[in-house]
Specification:
The strands form two sheets. The protein has a seven-stranded mixed sheet, with helices on both faces. It has a five-stranded antiparallel sheet with strand order 11-10-9-8-12, with no helix packed on it. It folds into two domains: 191 residues, 2-Layer Sandwich (BirA Bifunctional Protein, domain 2), CATH 3.30.930; 43 residues, SH3 type barrels (Roll). The protein is of the alpha+beta class. It starts with a strand and ends with a strand. The chain is globular. It binds biotin. Biotin binds next to helix 1, strand 3, strand 6 and strand 7. This is Bifunctional ligase/repressor BirA.
């Protein structure tokens, strides 16, 4: 992964850069990095703050030959890879909030956006967007992010090497992807569980059926988060934004 690399100074969103490459037939593993994004996108239509040279704003093209139902597992695998890379290179104790936000002491340090394009229930390609707040200073965070976001520099007290971090992310991704291909989702699931800050906690989530709250009990084999409601009834969550209560 990342052996074909494009670095741009500024772009709207690296997701769009990779979408163009994908549609031109670029092989799996291509990576686009931007120093700055003017229209960085988050999940659920949110904006992603992407100031120049302060973070890792990148998107990876993947072409897994798998059914569409593989996408949630891939999302969790990427979260594990980035979490391990952050811990190894910066020493910052990041954990995973289901499905794939990385938090440090309750504040978000990294967001992951996996967009899948499919045909006849099979994946044509996935665009894995990874945004890591690396060297953003506390006073540089926009007012609305002050209470909810942090950076590796804020948490570690020193500037972090972005190249070392990107290299570590790619190495972890390759290792975990190989493990996944050899042994399936179970070992990835165990790694995810060990890094989770969600399991065992009370969480609330908005679903089309209304707000549900319960204790996050387990991850199932498909990647769904199993909540136990107040009566102890299991409720599988396939998507959505969970809030730690
Ligand atoms: C989220 O937590 O909501 C996901 C954020 C994903 C941000 C990254 S930065 C690189 C790539 N390009 C984008 O526009 N978004 C993703």
């Amino acid at each position: 992964f990342g052996r074909s690399l494009k670095i741009v100074e500024v772009t709207t969103s690296t997701q769009e850069e990779v979408r163009l490459l994908a549609e031109q037939g670029t092989p799996s593993g291509a990576l686009v990095l931007a120093e700055e994004q003017t229209g960085g996108r988050g999940r659920q239509g949110r904006k992603w703050f992407s100031p120049p040279r302060k973070g890792v704003w990148m998107s990876l093209l993947l072409r897994p030959e798998r059914p569409l139902s593989f996408a949630p597992q891939l999302t969790l695998l990427i979260a594990v890879a980035v979490c391990r890379a952050i811990r190894k290179t910066s020493g910052v104790d990041a954990g995973i909030k289901w499905p794939n936000d990385l938090l440090v002491q309750g504040k978000k340090v990294c967001g992951i956006l996996v967009e899948s394009v499919s045909e006849d229930e099979r994946i044509r390609y996935c665009i894995a967007g990874i945004g890591i707040d690396v060297n953003v200073e506390a006073h540089e965070l926009p007012a609305d992010l002050q209470a909810v976001a942090t950076s590796l520099k804020i948490e570690s007290g020193r500037n972090q090497d972005r190249v070392a971090l990107i290299t570590a992310v790619m190495n972890e991704l390759e290792d975990l992807y190989t493990l996944y291909e050899q042994e399936g989702f179970t070992p990835i699931k165990h790694l995810w569980e060990a890094l989770s800050v969600t399991l065992g906690k009370r969480v609330a989530v908005k679903t089309p059926q209304g707000e549900i709250s319960g204790v996050a009990d387990a991850l199932d084999e498909s990647g769904a988060l199993i909540l136990l409601d107040d009566k102890g009834m299991p409720f599988p969550l396939f998507s959505g934004e969970v809030h730690l209560a």
